[in-house]
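Hey team,

Filing this mostly as a record. A colleague (T.K.) asked me to run one chain through the structure pipeline before their review meeting, and I want the input and output archived in the tracker in case anyone asks later how it was produced. No errors, nothing strange. Just documentation.

Input sequence:
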Amino acid sequence: MQTPQLQRSAFLLLLATVTIAFGWVLLPFAGAVLWSLALAILFTPVYRRLVRRLGGRRNLAALITLTVALVIVILPLFMIAMSLVAQVAQVSQRIRSGEISFSSYFQQVVAAIPRWALDLLDRLGLGDVESMIAKVAQGAAAASQQIAAHALSIGQNTFEFLVSFGLMLYLLYFLLRDGRELSAIVRNALPLARPHTNFLLNKFTTVIRATIKGNIVVAAVQGVIGGLALWALGVQGALLWGVVMSFLSLLPAVGAALIWLPVAIYFLATGSLWQGITLILIGVFVIGLVDNVLRPLLVGKDTQMPDYIVLMSTVGGLALFGINGFVIGPVIAAMFMAAWHVFATTREPGDDSPPV
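Output structure:
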């Protein structure tokens, strides 16, 4: 005999199964879905203003908003990516030919170390300079091979990229146009009290908007400043290192310094004092100031998360999910904190049951 409890359990099992299966189907295009959702959240205020000005014509407003997103965000990134691929191939060729030799750069830095410092390294068991140079040479060779392999894979995966890119634009259009209705469906479908649902979904959208807006602005500013500084100082591949600096700046506090600080040390060690001092001043007082001022203002203030939570969730997200992790990590951390906040504030004294 079929009881209501059995029917409900069977339906919940079916619901979980089809949900997992649908997620599995979308998994190859998870990045496209993530960025279409993120861009929809970011550009929804623009879409709503256009709807009011165009007298409620939602299709036209969504199309104009999509064009604005293309012009402001997507096309500039696409152009930078194309220039970056060309420069990556050029730099990797110079590394293979020996024109750029990280081992020789390292050897010049070691040669400039004072004798007392070398004696100290000997006492600490770190004075085997030849083995260190050999390791640097091996690392440079491996890095050049990886760079060349990634540049080749970018060319080979052009079709997959175009499919994902087209899917992202397609989804972005409908998420802009039908976002309010889809949001209402999600709110009504979640088996939570309405205040809890609104709180969690609002936290979700706020964190995505703040993370993308803040991190992309900080990364772009640091990458542009760092790239221009390296170009002005005559460093080869300034565009490449500026883009790498932008990606590394997703790591709060220490990211961009992983590029400009070794270059400044090389300048100082090889006698280019004014170049080294100039780069250190720019790195500390300009690039560092951007990170210390803009990031808390744009990210931490809106997400209402401590800086150390933002740092750990960003690093963990990047380690687990790649470039998409700088959004996914903070979102997971924010939802974790929000869910526990709901749990803690809805329990009554002496009540050991979870909130409903």
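Quick notes for T.K.: The chain is about 85% helix and 0% strand. The chain has two domains: 29-181, 189-345.
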